[in-house]
UniProtKB/TrEMBL annotation, chains A, B:
CC annotations in GO: cytosol
Binding residue positions for ATP: 100, 136, 169-172, 177, 255-256
Annotated catalysed reactions: 5-amino-1-(5-phospho-beta-D-ribosyl)imidazole + hydrogencarbonate + ATP = 5-carboxyamino-1-(5-phospho-D-ribosyl)imidazole + ADP + phosphate + 2 H(+)
Residue ranges of every copy of the ATP-grasp domain listed in the record: 104-285
Keyword ATP-binding applies: yes
Biological processes, Gene Ontology terms: 'de novo' IMP biosynthetic process
EC number: 6.3.4.18
Gene label: purK
Lineage: Bacteria, Bacillati, Actinomycetota, Actinomycetes, Propionibacteriales
Record's protein name: N5-carboxyaminoimidazole ribonucleotide synthase
């Protein structure tokens, strides 16, 4: 079995671990030499994911093609499908992760609970929608980029200057953020992971707690069912991450969709029977999916932002806790950059949090206080 | 951090998984293009492990060098050490895994319990030692090769015809075989895994049960302590596997030593907090070692011998059990060849065994009955 992956970031790198275990050959289209996944996938080519010829070359002889990111142009995905390539997730699903405007429209049709939203083309539109609000480019944003919090009309300037299509959404009064991860195989089989709590700072995921503490059982069940329904209705193949708000009045609203292994699922590597990366690989190849059960009462993930140049020195401290599981992406240290993460698990949530935060702090020169 | 590995078999391949997770760069000297580990380690060179120039080239710029097998000539390891390379395990330790005669002498000096043994140079020597017995080449044997069971003088012919140095050992009347795995870091830190029960057929490991069922607590503790002491006294760096007999009269005797990740430790990938492969990599780089605790009451490993050409078809059946963890080495199917293994874990040992055997059987065309 041979699987092509487009994009050489850490998600592709982390797909390579279960792919190696399962004996699945990978081919990678990397954006530059030496990027994260190119360090661990021998059969890689450097090329542009916007170049149909590069895409066509990498998928030749592969059972399927999947993605490290959602930026491949939809028309290229359709072109590959027309050639008979198994594009997973396919363009008809992926477009809802690529375009927040289409996503909101489709989720509205499905009756999925969303923040109030509208496409806006002018400051007057935003004022009519209601300020304060959030405005976002419908395409291309990630990790807080392409998102503006609007507290006065002046805050809209950058967004409209960008020339992008802009979506306005109500400012949700939320208690916390949650994430519901599901895997859907090319066979149609769907499995769901326990709903997790996520801590985002400036639009960047910092910590994840699995399962989400004190989430009412009926809300947990409804949220898993919602994510499964979205995956099926949208025809997703692979991992679907549904990022959610839990509002102060107890409602669950869909914030974002991602159709690939997701930062809010990194805990599964050490905390679930089957990691999201393994289930993504199994799903896109149409293999049976693995169990999603937790392997401990609590699992915590803490991201490492920034990084260090002396990894061995960092590990002297971070791995002094013998039960910490460290993950490093092979990326150069840079302020605010996601360069790794730490997983811990156990019976005591506070202990897991303390240990994971301590280990993650040892793996970066970046203070947690300064940039929060 | 960069680590060189000599030998491109499945042990090197399985070291690559935790190395990728930890952000450790690997360089591989592979014996041929496309071998198991070369499929997952981009920085590989094809060369001969008996060629000092090839060894010297691969270790340049690496923090340490370690091994997929024990066949690198001792004089080359000394030459690398003389150049300042961190050879782990070093030649002064590794020689006891390479040469069973030296191993028996050294273990005797340490007072480690061993079967009665003697170097023999003629059939008369063997008769004087006592028939029945086992005779073995002191160097180069593995998986039952280079081992002869002597029930009459005629059974010695092949051994002496080989021209190799031959060790005779008493035929041990054993209840079962056990294995004690420890990791020793370059810093001197030692950790031990729970002692496991192993089922060998014709000298080839078939199944492993962790922990060894019904092993008396004091025997378990003494056996772990014995393995830790051997690792320390011999100056092992990395994983040491001590294969043992539990005799019908309740004694523990050392059978073999291996100084690398070992088939009897594959269960740790899915059943321990830290896998033997991760601890090997951490040990040889002088990093702190990870916890060796079991993650379930029972863990079972079953080897896949022989294999299949249609892996996807095999996975349809093997992975229909969503909690089975399958491992495949990327090797071509061949009768009796180790091509993969399956791990299962849970509260019920019989259930784990049944599930692992069923999944392993689905991954090979080789019947378990025919070749036992």
């Amino acid at each position: 079995m041979t699987l092509a992956i487009i994009g050489g970031g850490q998600l592709a790198r982390m797909m390579a671990e279960p792919a190696a275990a399962l004996g699945i050959d990978l081919r990678l289209l990397a954006e530059a030499p030496g990027v994260s996944a190119a360090q661990v996938i021998p059969a890689h080519t450097v090329g542009d994911y916007r170049d149909l010829d590069a895409l066509t070359a990498i998928v030749a002889g592969c059972e399927a093609v999947t993605f490290d990111h959602e930026h491949v142009p939809t028309e290229h995905l359709h072109a590959l499908e027309a050639m008979g390539v198994a594009v997973r997730p396919g363009p008809d699903a992926l477009v809802y992760a690529q375009d927040k405007g289409l996503m909101r429209t489709r989720l509205g049709q499905l009756g999925a609970p969303c923040p109030r939203n509208a496409i806006v083309t002018s400051v007057a539109d935003v004022e009519a929608f209601g300020i304060p609000c959030v405005i976002k480019t419908t395409r291309g944003g990630y990790d807080g980029k392409g998102v503006w919090f609007v507290r006065s009309a002046a805050d809209c300037a950058d967004a409209f200057a960008s020339g992008a299509t802009i979506l306005a959404e109500e400012l949700v009064d939320f208690r916390r953020e949650l994430s519901a991860l599901v895997a859907r195989s090319a066979t149609g089989e769907v499995v769901s992971y326990p709903v997790v709590e996520t801590l985002q700072v400036d639009g960047v995921c910092r910590e994840v707690i699995a399962p989400a503490p004190d989430l009412a059982a009926d809300v947990e069940a409804e949220t898993e069912a919602l994510a499964r329904r979205i995956a099926t209705e949208l025809g997703v193949v692979g991992i679907l991450a549904v990022e959610l708000f839990e509002t102060t009045d107890g409602r669950i609203l869909v914030n974002e969709l991602a159709m690939r292994p997701h930062n809010t699922g990194h805990w599964t590597q050490d905390g679930a029977v089957t990691s999201q990366f393994e289930n993504h690989v199994r799903a896109v190849l149409g293999l049976p999916l693995g169990a999603t059960d937790l392997r401990a009462p609590y699992v915590v993930m803490v991201n490492v932002l920034g990084g260090v140049s002396d990894l061995a020195g960092a590990y002297e401290k971070a791995l002094a806790d013998p039960s910490v599981k460290a993950h490093w992406y092979g990326k150069e240290a840079r302020p605010g950059r996601k360069v790794g993460h730490v997983n811990t698990y156990g019976d005591d949530l506070e202990d897991c949090l303390t240990r994971a935060r301590r280990a993650a702090a040892a793996m970066t020169t970046e203070g947690m206080e300064g940039d929060a």
